[in-house]
Structure formats: structure tokens, C-alpha cells
Write a structure and sequence with these properties.
By secondary structure, the chain is of the alpha+beta class. The protein folds into two domains: 254 residues, Naphthalene 1,2-dioxygenase Alpha Subunit, Chain A, domain 1; 103 residues, Rieske Iron-sulfur Protein (3-layer Sandwich). The protein is built from eleven helices and 20 strands. The strands form five sheets. The chain has a seven-stranded antiparallel beta sheet, sandwiched between helices. Strands 6-3-4-5-10 form a five-stranded antiparallel beta sheet, with no helix packed on it. Strands 2-12-11 form a three-stranded antiparallel beta sheet, with no helix packed on it. The chain is globular, with a radius of gyration of 23 Å. The N and C termini lie far apart (54 Å). Bound molecules: FE2/S2 (inorganic) cluster and fe (ii) ion. Fe (ii) ion binds next to loops.
């Protein structure tokens, strides 16, 4: 983030703290609860946002050298991503061209050859079929015709993008916009190294998992003994970038900046930036690394999803064993808070949504990210917008 932008955003956070104000969405919205439970909508989301949309499968540091690979089994297309012998990022459908077995089951690792367990057809890092037993029984096939099916793949500013459709296109200017691309690049994400990961299989719709990142109004209540100790709740900065947005969650360390010259202000001291990249990514850079959360629907059940959480480190802390160990523990703890606090209420929200006991829930004026996210996905699916309301229209009870 540019220096001038950092200072401007820190001043805005301070002024909101001083005034006891939060960012204002300009009104309320009622969000129908069936968006979390409707199987037809879930199918449309799966086709439009997951099969028909580029996805972030990792960071440059996930594939640190030629021969590194990772897989993603949560997208409609099982993906095998590699760094080939020339150092180029590649992605393939992780399905053997013989009889369709998933070729590489491991989550990540180093390999120059990928051998299918069924009959040992073998592929290299460029997806080329480089060996098969008894080729004469298959007419000595031209290996170039039976390579893994390649997927569109782009490595940009440290981010690894894959389109799950072999005929799909990746246009990051269209998807992120020039300004957001530039800001993401300013974090030098290509310098980060992989630290660890976890998957959380949660009984809630993937959008409920995303929603929990959309405001800090809940910090003093739900996170009273955890995140609230480090953050001022219910105050943030918020900006949209097309279908994406950026939130700046206000850290309590901002208070110490008031006595320092502006030249010494760092946004990572004052705030945790949260980039919500449509449709399913929360990207959170901090001074020593990055937390990345991606939520994937269960295509068979709108009431389930898997969140994949991965952690990364900047070069300096990565080089020091003790610091690395400490940051690993902090990152795991951060994930546990999401799992054991946020996702517990997300699953609770799912129970009432699935039961159909409420027609709608409410997005407050202090929850603009929820307004924007839900309006965005509705627009992309051709659904009616949710009206912005001046008042909720509750009828007061008369005793
Ligand atoms: S299915 Fe892969 S080698 Fe036969
Ligand atoms: Fe939370």
C-alpha cells in the first residue's frame, strides 16, 4: 500500500475511533436466509462462481522451485499445479488420460514425475505423458496427444490463478481492476514462503463463512477474550474495487502511533488489511507474513463447506528458527479462532437458515462489506438487488 494511502487510512481510523463512528453503508438491507440453504441457488453458484471463474490456488511461495507441485480438490475440476523445469507455473486437470484416476493425491510436495497409481501412466511437470507400461496395447500412442489436460494459469504479483475450465480465460484487470492489482503487488507477495495449512470442514454455507469476515461489530461479543484484546471492534475502513473489496480492521496498536511522527506510521501496525477477492478469498497481509482463507462449497449440500487456511512468512522471519516457530503458533491460533469462534456461529446461522425459521436477516449500516458482497453475487446471478432501507420497518410492540 502506498505511503500516502497508509497515512490517510490511519487518520481515517483514528478519526472514527475519536468520534465513536464506523464506516456507514448508508442504510440497512434485509438478506433472505434461503440464499444459504437453497440447493438450486447453490448449483448456480457452483457453475458460475466456481466452474466459470478463475481461482486463487496459492502463492508463488507454494511452488518455490522447479518440480514443486500442489493440488486443489475443492474446485469443480481437480487441479494439479506445477512449476515446470523452466520455472513456469502450470496447471492441469488432475485426471489420468487412461481411465481417469486422480494422478496426484498429495496436497503438495516436490516431484518431477507424476505416476498414476492404477496402471502407472506417468506424466512430467509439463503434463506430458512420458511413460506407460506396454504401450503397444494402446497402439504406441503419440505421448503429446495423451498429456494431462492443461488449464489456463497465470502467476501475477505472487498470486497463482487457475481457471477450472480448460477453455476459460483469466483477465486479472477485469477481475481485480488496475488499482487493486497495483495495491496487491505493493505487498510483494512473491517474496512470501509457505508456512502451513489446515482445512476446516464446517456445517455452514460457504457464504456464511465469508460473511463472518465482513465486519468487526462482533469482536467485543464473540471474540471478547481473543481478537478483541488486539483490535478495536466496530470500527474499520472500507473500500470497494469492482466485485472485490478491502477492509482495514483497526488494531489497538494504532493508539501508540498518535505519539509518533507520520513518517513512522505503518498500516500493519494500525490495522489488519483484509482483501476480500470475489468470490471466496480473504487475503490478510501483516508485517511478518500473510493469512489466506478460501471457502469452497460442498456441491452436494448447500449447508456445508470447506475452508482452506494457509499461512505464509516474509523472508526475514522465515530465516529465523525461533521467530518462525512463534509465527507458526500464532498463525495456527488465528485459524483456531476462526474455526472455534466464527465458524461455530456460522454453523448456528446455518441451522436456522436450513430450518427456514426466519425469512430474512439484517445487514446493519456498519456492515458494508456484507451489503456489497451479497449485492455483487446477486447481480452476477441475475437476481434482484436487495433494496437499501432507511429503517428496518419493525413495528414497535405496544404493551
Ligand atoms: S487410470 Fe491411470 S494409468 Fe490407468
Ligand atoms: Fe470473527
Amino acid at each position: 500500500m502506498e505511503r500516502a494511502e497508509q497515512v490517510a487510512q490511519i487518520k481515517l481510523l483514528m478519526s472514527r475511533l475519536d468520534a465513536g463512528m464506523n464506516v456507514d453503508a448508508g442504510g440497512f438491507r434485509r438478506n433472505p436466509t434461503n440464499v444459504y440453504a437453497d440447493p438450486d441457488l447453490a448449483e448456480r453458484e457452483w457453475q458460475t462462481f466456481f466452474r466459470g471463474h478463475p481461482h486463487l490456488v496459492g502463492l508463488t511461495g507454494d511452488l518455490p522451485e522447479p518440480g514443486s507441485f500442489l493440488t486443489c480438490e475443492h474446485l469443480p475440476t481437480p487441479v494439479l499445479a506445477t512449476r515446470d523445469d523452466d520455472g513456469r507455473f502450470r496447471a492441469f486437470v488432475n485426471a489420468c488420460r487412461h481411465r481417469g484416476v486422480v494422478v496426484e493425491e498429495r496436497n503438495r510436495g516436490e516431484a518431477r514425475r507424476f505416476t498414476c497409481p492404477f496402471h502407472h501412466w506417468t506424466y512430467d511437470t509439463e503434463g506430458t505423458l512420458v511413460g506407460l507400461p506396454n504401450p503397444e496395447h494402446f497402439g504406441n500412442p503419440d505421448p503429446s496427444c495423451l498429456g494431462l489436460i492443461e488449464l489456463p494459469a497465470v502467476e501475477d504479483a505472487g498470486l497463482l490463478w487457475v481457471h477450472p475450465d480448460p477453455d476459460g480465460a483469466i483477465d486479472l484487470d477485469e477481475q481485480l481492476g488496475h488499482d487493486l492489482r497495483a495495491e496487491l503487488a505493493s505487498w510483494h507477495l512473491d517474496e512470501l514462503s509457505y508456512l502451513g495449512w489446515d482445512d476446516y470442514d464446517v456445517a455452514c454455507n460457504w457464504k456464511l463463512a465469508m460473511d463472518t469476515f465482513g465486519e468487526t461489530y462482533h469482536f467485543p461479543a464473540l471474540h471478547s477474550q481473543t481478537l478483541n484484546l488486539g483490535f478495536h471492534g466496530n470500527v474499520q475502513c472500507y473500500d470497494t474495487h469492482g466485485r472485490n473489496h478491502r477492509m482495514l480492521l483497526c488494531k489497538r496498536d494504532i493508539d501508540g502511533l498518535r505519539d509518533l511522527p507520520e513518517d513512522d506510521w505503518e498500516i500493519t501496525t494500525a490495522a489488519l488489511p483484509v482483501y476480500w477477492l470475489f468470490p471466496n478469498v480473504q487475503l490478510m497481509p501483516f508485517a511478518q507474513g500473510l493469512h489466506l482463507v478460501r471457502a469452497y462449497p460442498d456441491p452436494r449440500d448447500p449447508g456445508r463447506h470447506v475452508s482452506r487456511i494457509t499461512w505464509y512468512l516474509r523472508p526475514e522471519p522465515a530465516a529465523d528458527t525461533e521467530t518462525r516457530k512463534a509465527l507458526e503458533m500464532i498463525s495456527q491460533r488465528f485459524g483456531e479462532i476462526i474455526r472455534d469462534e466464527d465458524y461455530v456461529v456460522s454453523a448456528s446461522q446455518q441451522r436456522t437458515a436450513s430450518a427456514g425459521v426466519l425469512d430474512h436477516v439484517v445487514f446493519g449500516r456498519n456492515e458494508p462489506a456484507l451489503h456489497h458482497y451479497h449485492e455483487t453475487y446477486r447481480r452476477m446471478l441475475g437476481m434482484d438487488p436487495l433494496p437499501l432501507l432507511d429503517e428496518l420497518g419493525f413495528v414497535p410492540e405496544i404493551s
